[in-house]
């Protein structure tokens, strides 16, 4: 459930007067999502999404996230455009929270994407990387190795409750990553959370990308590795080579990967699997049920970490 802060009609109607969106006709909370409270608004000028930022988004990062969406939208990426208020501000305050209105994107996120859909995701990810290259702001990845270490320090002592032997397994991974994590790969703006719930389709066509609240500067190939994890594994945790091939071919049709990026895919995919395992594990162990964050199963990402550890060659992901 992703409406953590409620908003009443009177305060919303008054808030909207500051924006060029017309008058409120109706609104409702959106159940999907993890971090923030989202509402679908219908006004006399169309549909919008209202987001109230909850505790886990740092207000200081909002100009980066919102500026990036605007930049990408202006460069032809189908993503929400933040609406500027009459006074020139994008970020307002509603119900005691930082609040923003963004344009509504048509489309549905897919539960069972096909290889054809995943090929489109690869193309869109590469287009995002190219379009972000001249975005003037930067944001370091808060969930790179140092961030993982913080999460692990908080969760390690209870990790074996979730999976016996997990503490030793992850300790060994950290030792490996600290020695071997790639340093000199091409980097720029990455989405960093391009999971199926953040990509919309209309039929076979990709209609939009949402949720830029983990976007940051990091290796482009790390974003590709995250998509391999998020899109190319089946429910039984087997890797679907056809889907991997489609994702990588789609990506490379827009931005070819260098030899170094290809060679780094196994360690990047293992690191990305650890990153999502750790945020899930941290929430699993520390957030009360019914609390402010929707919990997701960390063991799904332990399976992926093990898969990547056994990879002998990046061709096993479907690189052609
Ligand atoms: N611009 C948009 N257009 C249409 N629906 C959106 C848009 N932004 C968000 N949504 C809806 O709100 C849900 C939650 O948004 P998301 O940004 O993923 O939230 P969170 O950051 O809390 O995870 C999405 O799954 C989608 O249903
Ligand atoms: N994609 C992450 C969780 C972040 O959720 P989102 O709703 O913000 O995309 C995961 O699967 O762990």
TrEMBL record:
Q: What class of enzyme is it?
A: transferase
Q: Which Pfam families match?
A: APH (PF01636)
Q: Which residues form the Aminoglycoside phosphotransferase domain?
A: 27-257
Q: In which pathway does it act?
A: Amino-acid biosynthesis; L-threonine biosynthesis; L-threonine from L-aspartate: step 4/5
Reaction equation(s) it catalyzes? L-homoserine + ATP = O-phospho-L-homoserine + ADP + H(+)
InterPro entries under this entry?
Aminoglycoside_PTrfase, Homoserine_kinase_II, Kinase-like_dom_sf, Pseudomonas-type_ThrB
EC number(s)? 2.7.1.39
GO molecular function terms noted in the UniProt entry = homoserine kinase activity
Q: Provide the alphabetized UniProt keywords.
A: Amino-acid biosynthesis, ATP-binding, Kinase, Nucleotide-binding, Threonine biosynthesis, Transferase
Organism superkingdom: Bacteria
The Swiss-Prot or TrEMBL record describes its family as follows:
Belongs to the pseudomonas-type ThrB family.
Q: What name does the UniProt record give this protein?
A: Homoserine kinase
Please name the gene that encodes this protein.
thrB
């Amino acid at each position: 459930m992703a409406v953590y802060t409620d908003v009443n009609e009177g305060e919303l109607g008054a808030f909207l007067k500051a924006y060029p969106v017309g008058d409120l006709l109706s609104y409702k909370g959106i159940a999907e999502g993890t971090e923030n409270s989202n509402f679908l608004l219908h006004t006399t000028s169309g549909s919008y999404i209202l987001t109230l930022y909850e505790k886990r988004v740092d207000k200081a990062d909002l100009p980066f996230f919102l500026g990036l969406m605007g930049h990408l939208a202006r460069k032809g990426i189908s993503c929400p455009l933040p609406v500027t208020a009459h006074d020139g501000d994008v970020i307002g305050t509603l119900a005691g929270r930082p609040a923003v209105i963004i344009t509504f994107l048509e489309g549905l996120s897919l539960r069972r994407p096909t290889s054809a859909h995943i090929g489109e995701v690869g193309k869109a990810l590469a287009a995002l990387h190219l379009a972000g290259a001249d975005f003037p702001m930067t944001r370091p990845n808060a969930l790179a190795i140092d961030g993982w270490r913080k999460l692990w320090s908080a969760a390690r002592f209870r990790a074996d409750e979730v999976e016996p032997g997990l503490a030793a397994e992850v300790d060994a991974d950290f030792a490996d990553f600290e020695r071997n994590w790639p340093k000199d790969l091409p980097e720029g703006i990455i989405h960093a959370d391009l999971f199926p719930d953040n990509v919309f389709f209309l039929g076979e066509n990709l209609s939009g990308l949402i949720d830029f609240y983990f976007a940051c500067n990091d290796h482009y190939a790390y974003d590709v590795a995250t998509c391999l994890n998020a899109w190319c594994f089946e429910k039984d945790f087997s890797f679907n080579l056809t889907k991997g091939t489609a994702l990588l071919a789609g990506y490379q049709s827009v931005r070819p990967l260098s030899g170094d990026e290809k060679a780094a895919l196994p360690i990047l995919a293992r690191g990305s699997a650890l990153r999502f395992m750790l945020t899930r594990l941290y929430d699993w162990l520390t957030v009360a049920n019914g609390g402010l964050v929707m919990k997701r199963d960390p063991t799904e990402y332990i399976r992926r970490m093990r898969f990547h550890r056994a990879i002998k060659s990046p061709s096993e992901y479907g690189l052609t």
